[in-house]
Write a structure and sequence with these properties.
Blueprint (H helix, E strand, L loop, with lengths): L2 H23 L8 E7 L4 E5 L7 E2 L5 E8 L3 E4 L10 E3 L3 E4 L9 E4 L2
Antiparallel strand pairs: 1-2, 1-4, 3-8, 4-7, 5-6, 5-8
Length: about 110
Amino acid sequence: MSVTDHRRIGVAAGAALLTIAVAGCSGLGRNAVGTIEYVTERERVVTVTNPLVTGCHRLSPSGATAVSNKTLIDMVLYPNRECSGGMTTYVATASSDTIAPGARPWGSYTLVH
């Protein structure tokens, strides 16, 4: 085998391993790296560490009035506990947001993946 053949085999093997690694990382059990901190309507601070990337995540029953996204992915906040409907708020990674005066607290969130 020539040096060129060895390189082609190496590139092919590397591409195959990369494909397997990416497929493994896209599983349903992925977690967002970092924390999400929120303040409840009763002014209690709650920290969620490494939340699952998939699904609807409910906030405390009284809702959240301020949220800080310290994960590596973006999130969407919902004014209800079912992660549905309009009036959502998009919070990018390393960002935070608070509800507008007179607005209902957020009840749930999803992570953008």
